[in-house]
Amino acid sequence: MIHWLAPWLFSDDVCRLFGYISFRAAGAAVTAFLFAVLFGPRVIAWLSRQGVGERIDGTGSQRLEALHAHKKGTPTMGGLFVVGGLLAASLLWLRFDPPNHFSWPGVLLIAGFAAVGLWDDWVKLRNPQKRGIGKREKQGALTLVALLASLWLLGPAALEGGAGGPHLYVPFLKDVSLDLTVWFGLPFLVLGVLVLTGSANAVNLTDGLDGLAAGCIASAAIAYAVITYAVGRVDWSAYLLVQHVAGAGEMTVMMAALLGAALGFLWFNAAPALVFLGDVGSLGLGGALGYAALVSRTELVLLVVGGVFVVEALSVLIQVASFRLRGVRVFRCAPLHHHFQFGGMPETRVVVRTWVVSALLALCSLALFKVR
Fold this sequence. Notes:
Layout: H1 2-9, H2 12-17, H3 21-50, H4 62-67, H5 79-93, H6 103-126, H7 135-154, E1 167-170, E2 173-179, H8 182-206, H9 212-231, H10 234-240, H11 251-269, H12 278-296, H13 302-305, H14 307-326, H15 336-342, H16 347-367
Antiparallel strand pairs: 1-2
């Protein structure tokens, strides 16, 4: 939006700055951060007056309930001002004119996922007997939003810069690509739904300790800011041996806004947390990461960038499957961060060490671009 307004507000020399992705990315990061920091206290106060406090539900584990008893009543649904900052910064600093075909779908996807999370949070917090909306309802709503976004990405207008449509590229084997447009694009639609909903749910599962999810999102956002910028430039993509996607560089601005929003939330969510994300925040932010992976055609690299989220989600799946099939729990408690808590590790140490691992994984993911 600011790119349209700039000629009316600034001189020609200043207007040129708004044509640079790097300048607009910096502006988006600062805008999202300031939005979160300025509106955060007001939203937290409003949530407190509404009685929107965290319920401590250890799903049958009295030890987990005891470990988190001090958090009971802390306002949740802080994702309202986090996603609000992300969307406001994106609307302000993104370009929406061709060939930037990815901007509007990304904004709408984040808003849609956040709306599903808000629905789930509200039911959960206003009806003590319920644990949110039903799993089928929640996954169905996320799937519908993800499917609509994937259909747009499958369209020739959205991916006109990419060699015949979406392909799946394999790290270490860059000469190998799988055409996802066969069978009317069904493989891409399935992959898109899995990536978008899987990323959102994985971030949701990780959001269990003060500052844990926000810190990991920040490092992942930095990695994808670099990745989307690289694949959006003809010269960089050729040098790094990755597929060029016209317009993908605009997602650098969105990832910068995601970084600013995550840091702004961490301002209030660092231990001891003043507010929690809630599903409205975790689903919206997780969806943004998945969308960047789809646009840049680095869905497999997302497994490395978001390695922490992947492991957290896998720990839950393994725990549930093992208990149902064998009656044995693999971990002391799932998701994995609770396993370390049960082992006696202080919460802040679990969080900081996970941040370190997340940052290292983000660096490793960038190294994949130069390896054939």
